[in-house]
């Protein structure tokens, strides 16, 4: 028999969609219970008391009925944090949407993943504060690869484990090769040391500890190309939010 409990929990509003005439279904990423879908009765009515609490990307402390299976129900909010700069800027909004979509795709609903909740919370705060959203998205992309079943070795040569020689990325090898083993992959990526350095850092850094982000445009383009290739060839994930981001440079 499925269990249910009334609980207080930390949550991030992932998305919402209209349901029936006056209601909404709202997906909340909770720290304690993972991703859960909530049925919000009367959410589309004028003057709905929890309207601010279910705006996309809102972070809050909520009280609700949590069910092991099926829809959950939201009773109240204890505190809310809104991220105005994200809501006002289509670019920041797009990257947060993509990051939450990645998490949604990587993990089953109902699985408590507090580490990723804390990272998503940090992403909201830092992108709202003006940190480079592309680089923050790359942190999630790289660190989610093992969850998608794609293991990549970035820190040392995948053959001899040396890290004191120039390294280059080899897609066929599943990681970096030192220059002594570059001959094993004639199609290696020919990345410069700066790009390799950032791949190493972004794949292992704790986002909450990042104090600043300054990456040259040329390096950002190379990072994007490599990570896009891995997601295209190895993960096979095609998200509408990622396509939207990729089209943004063409708007001008």
Please describe the structure with a list of short key phrases separated by commas or semicolons:
OB fold (Dihydrolipoamide Acetyltransferase, E2P); 2 domains; 5-stranded mixed beta barrel; alpha+beta; RecO_C; 34% helix; elongated; 7 helices; 252 residues; two-stranded antiparallel ribbon; single chain; 23% strand; 7 strands
Task: Provide a concise account of the structure shown.
Keywords: DNA damage, DNA recombination, DNA repair. Belongs to the RecO family. With 252 residues, the protein is of the alpha+beta class.
Explain the overall architecture:
- Involved in DNA repair and RecF pathway recombination.
- Keywords: DNA damage, DNA recombination, DNA repair.
- It holds the Pfam family RecO_N.
- Belongs to the RecO family.
- This protein has seven helices and seven strands, in the order E-E-E-E-E-H-H-H-H-E-E-H-H-H.
- The chain folds into two domains: 79 residues, Nucleic acid-binding proteins (OB fold (Dihydrolipoamide Acetyltransferase, E2P)), CATH 2.40.50.140; 98 residues, no CATH class.
- It is elongated, with a radius of gyration of 20 Å.
- By secondary structure, it is an alpha+beta fold.
- Strand 1 and strand 2 form a beta hairpin.
- The mean pLDDT is 96.
- The strands form two sheets. It has a five-stranded mixed beta barrel with strand order 1-2-3-5-4. A two-stranded antiparallel ribbon has the order 6-7.
- The chain starts with a strand and ends in a 5-residue tail after the last helix.
